[in-house]
Amino acid sequence: MAISKTKGRIHSLDSFSAQDGPGIRYVIFMQGCIARCLYCQNPDTWDMKAGTLFTPEDIFEKIERCLPYIRPSNGGVTLSGGEPLLQPDFIIGLFKICRKNLVHTAIDTSAFYHEYIDPGKIDEVIKLTDLFIVDIKASNVALNKKISYMELKGSLSFINKLERKKMPYWLRYVLVPGLNDSDKDINDLKNILGALRHCKKFEFLPYHTLGKHKWKHMGVKYPLEGFRPASHSDTKSAMDRLLNPNLIA
């Protein structure tokens, strides 16, 4: 196998995950993110110059050792972060190897990469990816900016690109009680989802504070102090309202 000159900045690796796509997944947490989401559980991935450098071949050697239990589960490899799409050259190199070895590939992304990355490289990444898991932070422009410091149009533009290419994808929405769970928020979200044709799955993820200690370790004030974690009843209520045809914001 020829060794690539391309290297990716990697934050950490998880060789056994059942939460990041179908089946058992080998998850690669990429280093670097331009968003500053208020509930980020991995703020230690923000620094664009941190992490450990690996070639695609380095990483696939680690993945290959786990294939005996990944393949029987119909699992594969998922890139998370950080924001993976900020490192398209590494993704292209790794996913070409995965495709050659018939390994299912997925990317968990908020699609916050615009103005930084060549659109042609993103198109190549899309061609090599079997599944995208796209995170929506909020369903209206102002709240999305408040939560992530980024524009909602970036995420929606990427979703529309997947729609045009008829690519399968999942959507996720982190539900924070008292922040993005009002009837208006849910109704705006319904309007977004109603226009989609190739979204294969939507789910509310309950907000939690498991990453709160990382903010403290970094010497950064946790911005959602006072907001409670979301319960099962919170996510059920949100889904019931999302599916209610009579909901009026």
Helices and strands, with pairings:
Layout: E1 8-17, E2 25-30, E3 52-54, H1 56-64, H2 67-70, E4 76-80, H3 88-100, E5 104-109, H4 119-128, E6 131-136, H5 141-148, H6 152-164, E7 169-175, H7 183-194, E8 199-206, H8 212-217, H9 232-243
Parallel strand pairs: 2-4, 4-5, 5-6, 6-7, 7-8
Antiparallel strand pairs: 1-2, 1-3
Helix pairs in contact: 1-3, 3-4, 7-9
Summarize the model shown.
The protein is α/β, with parallel strands linked by helices and 249 residues long. Helix content is 35%, strand content 20%.
Structural description of this entry:
- The protein is an alpha/beta fold and 249 residues long.
- It has one domain (8-243): TIM Barrel (Alpha-Beta Barrel), CATH 3.20.20.70.
- 35% of the residues lie in helices and 20% in strands.
- The chain is built from 9 helices and 8 strands.
- The chain has helices spanning 56-64, 67-70, 88-100, 119-128, 141-148, 152-164, 183-194, 212-217, 232-243, and strands spanning 8-17, 25-30, 52-54, 76-80, 104-109, 131-136, 169-175, 199-206.
- It has an 8-stranded mixed sheet with strand order 3-1-2-4-5-6-7-8.
- Helix 7 (183-194) links the parallel strand 7 (169-175) and strand 8 (199-206).
- The longest helix is centred in the middle third of the chain and has 13 residues, at 88-100.
- It is globular, with a radius of gyration of 18 Å.
- The mean pLDDT is 94.
